[in-house]
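User: Modeling request: complex.
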Amino acid sequence: MWDFRPSTLEEFIGQKRLKEELSIYLSSIKKRKEVFPHTLFVGAPGLGKTTLARIIAFELRRELKITSGPVLDKPGAVAGILTNLSEGEILFIDEIHRIPKPCQEILYSAMEDFALDILIGKNQGARSVRLNLPRFTLIGATNKPNLLLGPLLDRFQLSFKLDYYQEEELKDILLKVSSLWGLKLSEESACKLAKAGKGIPRQALNLLRRLKEFMHHFTPQDSKILEVTEGEIKAFFQLLDIDEWGLTPEDRRCLFTLYRDFKGGPVGLNSLALSSRISPDELETLYEPALIRLGLMARTRKGRVITKLGEKYLKERNLFHVSL
Ligand SMILES: Nc1ncnc2c1ncn2[C@@H]1O[C@H](COP(=O)(O)OP(=O)(O)OP(=O)(O)O)[C@@H](O)[C@H]1O
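Assistant: Request completed. Predicted assembly structure:
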């Protein structure tokens, strides 16, 4: 089994408070056979927003349609997907903040009144026609809720914020998935991988996927169970050039660029991204969250700054003079 997605809330590890609340809504909606309320999941990429949408659909035995903000870039695209929904169906829109504003506006009446107002004709001859929609559930996922129009935000009856995972929780996820994949992780190996997962299941599972390939490469072909020792984890981390926190050469490059090119900051996101040779979006969503959570970088009102701990990190690893 290559991918692992929990299909019930019980199988979903972590996010304890969110799970408790969600399970109450699921059971009460199930009892009353109602349509699930419009729900927004807010959190960084890879924390499990899509997985939760799938779980809601599975638990309620509802159909799930999956799309994403960039696909819904024209009013016609939004109208098209809405008019193809059936009663009780769940529409999941990933990166909902990337829907252009005029298209977000179409969603207001669809969510509130289950109706679509379509403008037919042009100029003076134009008239508005109201099209009734089946009752459906919209589940949105975003890591930038501030880019959603206020009235759209208001139409989500439920909103959940996903937290980064504790190492212990990531460890449980890794142990569960590794056994499905025929990998035998010792407790210590699982802890090391979990620590390098940067609080994000997708990152931890990506590491596990690569570890599996690594193990297959170095183990005789007939072994059914691949046993991973601490020594192998060490060699694996060396091969990937990641440290015990899971920081990659790109993470270190951002930190070092901040130190070298901007004298430790403060510096704006775009300038730091340009000098680090990565896109501002990648810097903001992929790299800086971990650097900030580890206390190596900080975000101030004037921009990003390196912390004392960040300087210590570079110094200890002899990274003050590397050429990037
Ligand atoms: N709590 C969890 N327990 C087990 N596996 C999880 C959990 N959360 C996420 N995963 C796994 O991590 C991977 C990423 O999860 P998912 O695609 O749901 O994240 P996401 O928040 O929707 O990311 P994106 O916003 O980038 O689409 C999936 O393989 C999923 O099965």
